[in-house]
């Protein structure tokens, strides 16, 4: 059986990674910019996520089979009338699109 390699972008505390690892995938790279989420991720998986994906050279990201990208749900809880949520959702999608374009990846939306 093949082991699929994943990268975990906008990782939060690692919920998406945990689901894929339950089915035998191996995570090879993680990016999360929120310091509190990084601490919880480290407690959950024993590794410190890299920071803001926009500041990471795409050449420093290992080869992988599956790109995991979490939705920024944290901000929907903090948002007031959805304003903060909208700002960070736009940042999420624009960052994700730039990352995929720079790595010749197809977006599945």
Summarize the structure.
This protein has 109 residues and is an alpha/beta fold. The chain has 4 helices and 3 strands; from the N terminus they run E-H-E-H-E-H-H.
Commentary on this structure:
The chain is an alpha/beta fold. The chain contains four helices and three strands, in the order βαβαβαα. A three-stranded parallel sheet has the order 2-1-3, covered by helices on one side. About 5% of the residues have low confidence.
Low-confidence stretches: 81-85
Helix proportion range: 40-55%
Shape: globular
Task: Tally the beta strands.
Answer: 3
Spatial order of the strands in the main sheet? 2-1-3
Mean pLDDT comes to 79
Q: Distance between the terminal alpha carbons, to the nearest Å?
A: 29 Å
> How are helices and strands ordered from N to C?
EHEHEHH
The helix/strand class is: alpha/beta
Strand content: 5-15%
The number of distinct helices, counting runs of at least 4 residues, comes to 4
Tell me the major beta sheet: 3 strands, parallel
Mind telling me the C-alpha Rg? 14 Å
What attributes characterize this protein structure?
single chain; 109 residues; 3 strands
Give the SSE map.
Layout: E1 5-9, H1 15-21, E2 26-31, H2 35-45, E3 66-69, H3 73-78, H4 83-102
Parallel strand pairs: 1-2, 1-3
């Amino acid at each position: 059986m093949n082991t699929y390699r994943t990268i975990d972008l906008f990782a939060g505390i690692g919920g998406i990674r945990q689901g894929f690892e339950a089915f035998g995938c191996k995570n090879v790279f993680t990016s999360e910019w929120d310091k509190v989420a990084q601490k919880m991720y480290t407690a959950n998986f024993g590794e410190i996520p890299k920071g803001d994906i926009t500041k990471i050279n795409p050449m420093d990201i290992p080869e992988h089979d599956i790109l995991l990208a979490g939705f920024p749900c944290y901000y929907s809880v903090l948002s007031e009338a959805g304003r903060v949520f909208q700002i960070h959702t736009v940042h999420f999608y624009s960052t994700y699109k730039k990352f995929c374009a720079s790595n010749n990846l197809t977006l599945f939306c």
